[in-house]
Write a structure and sequence with these properties.
Number of helices: 18
Shape: globular
Organism: Funneliformis caledonium
Mean pLDDT: 84
Number of strands: 14
Largest sheet: 14 strands, parallel
InterPro entries: LRR_dom_sf
Strand content: 5-15%
Protein name: 2590_t:CDS:1
Helix content: 25-40%
Strand order of the largest sheet: 1-2-3-4-5-6-7-8-9-10-11-12-13-14
Length: 488
């Protein structure tokens, strides 16, 4: 059997980057597989899914390898402080594993160290961070959030040997606003090429954080997370606005949004969790945004806790900014808003908004007006919401030629009323479309235990059309992966 060349293996393993358990198993196939996969596996050892089978085993092996990689001087230092850590083998590591790391998570280090020892965790974390600073020559991402009870919260790792080289080309920083000022001060001297910055606002905002923001040369992605503590971020806004020419993606979770008008070049705008009894309603700020023009805007996502108090503001915003939108996500429902999407968003390719059963006419209008639409996600449920039959009938009759992906989101434990004959009718209709595109059908079931896939006869129909190529892919997932709305 001929062997795949290393570059082909690398391309294959890149698809497994988020599946650490499978990627880890590739280490054991042969030497070539090991040499290629180990680099990808260790790139970000913190991004594993803890609920997946064998994840704890993977974490344990990573932790053991990290301990084995500690330099002799660190091991001696720990021994002199009566810290004895067992290593899986006395043999030296096969690779310089730590040098492959491109991401450091301070919280991740804390968690791993707790697995190693219940005592003297501060000293162990210190030596691990020393090793990272010394052996990583080009760190890409640093995750450092305040945890005042954590074992490594006050370790001054930016002063460790090698830190200058390690942090010089840092491109992504996720941090809390109340980290010790010395960290921000030193980082602003070491690093000026951040492309992505995420700030979770806590009780204070230091001058040094503002200086770090101001010192960056090419900031493109900015995420601001404000809790209900009412941290005043007014002082930091001038430092943020300084990057209005380079910023292309802006994400705000909580807090005020009025300063968005300064970022006229943004291509992606995400506003999430915009209402609380403490923060008030930032869509009052949206009154000021409705007539601001963002000529480059292509992606708009709004996740609301409560319904919009005034849809007219958003409709005016779409009238001014909808012509170049490719992705639109609004988890709310309003007939006039739906009509404005059909009217003002001709280039839309992907859409999610809530369509009620008495608004199905507006869904038909959207599908017929947005000729470039490729994907929609629609809620299905009881009472006011669409059922599967109505949705499928509308999609097969009204969707444009480019359309190929349908996501059905079950919002409650509705019992499917879709019969296999009706499902068959849908796929016959889809088969007869010209041109005929294979369909991707995704069911997001949540807590629903009676979705259409729970009927054996329905699944037989789906399998039939998968085999014939009418269905390109069929997935059933518990919850939607709207990672843009998740905290980092």
């Amino acid at each position: 059997m001929s062997r795949l060349p290393a570059d082909c293996l690398n391309d294959i393993f890149e698809y497994l980057e988020d599946d650490k358990v499978t990627l880890h198993s590739c280490l054991l196939v042969n030497r070539l597989w090991c040499e290629v996969s180990v680099i990808i596996l260790w790139r970000d050892i913190w991004s594993y899914n803890p609920v997946l089978k064998r994840s704890s085993e993977f974490l344990s092996q990573i932790q053991s390898t990290l301990v084995a990689c500690l330099p002799n001087e660190s091991k001696f230092f720990l021994h002199t402080n009566k810290i004895f850590i067992a290593t899986p083998t006395s043999n030296p590591p096969l690779f310089n594993y730590v040098s492959f790391c491109k991401v450091i998570s301070i919280h991740g280090i804390n968690q791993m160290v707790k697995l190693v020892s219940k005592y003297n965790n501060y000293l162990i974390s210190q030596e691990v961070l020393k090793m990272f600073m010394n052996k990583i020559t080009c760190l890409q991402e640093l995750k450092y959030y305040s945890d005042h009870g954590s074992i490594s919260h006050n370790i001054k790792f930016t002063k460790f040997p090698g830190a200058t080289l390690c942090l010089k080309n840092l491109s992504k920083l996720n941090c809390s606003s109340d980290l010790h000022s010395e960290f921000f001060s030193q980082l602003s001297q070491l690093c000026c090429n951040l492309q992505s910055l995420t700030i979770e606002f806590e009780e204070s905002v230091t001058k040094e954080l503002k200086d770090l923001i101001s010192s960056q040369r090419n900031l493109e992605y900015l995420t601001l997370i404000q809790s209900e503590d009412l941290t005043d971020i007014t002082d930091i806004i001038p430092s943020l606005i300084k990057h209005s020419n380079t910023l292309t993606k802006l994400k705000i979770i909580g807090g005020t949004s009025i300063f968005i008008s300064s970022f006229s070049n943004i291509q992606e705008l995400i506003l999430s969790h915009l209402y609380s009894q403490y923060l008030g309603n930032p869509f009052e700020d949206f009154k000021e945004l409705q007539f601001v023009k963002f000529p480059q805007l292509q992606i708009l996502k709004l996740q609301l806790i409560y319904r919009l108090p005034n849809y007219e503001n958003l409709i005016n915003f779409l009238e001014n900014n909808g012509k170049n939108l490719k992705v639109l996500y609004i988890d709310d429902s309003d007939y006039s808003l739906n009509l404005s999407i059909a009217k003002f968003c001709p280039k839309l390719e992907s859409l999610f908004n809530i369509i009620l059963v008495n608004e199905i006419g507006s869904l038909k209008l959207i599908l017929m007006s947005c000729k470039l639409l490729k994907s929609i996600k629609v809620w299905c449920g009881e009472d006011d919401y669409l059922n599967e039959r109505e949705l499928l009938d509308t999609v097969v009759k009204c969707s444009p030629n480019n359309f190929y992906e349908l996501k059905i989101y079950y919002i409650n434990n509705v019992r499917t009323e879709l019969h296999p004959e009706e499902l068959e009718e849908f796929f016959i209709g889809w088969t007869n479309r010209i041109p005929q595109k294979s369909l991707s059908l995704i069911l997001i079931t949540g807590y629903c235990t009676n979705s259409l896939n729970t009927k054996k006869e329905n699944m037989e129909v789906i399998e039939k059309y998968k085999k014939s190529g009418v269905i390109k892919s069929f997935e059933v997932v518990n919850f939607d992966d709207e990672s843009d709305f998740c905290l980092p």
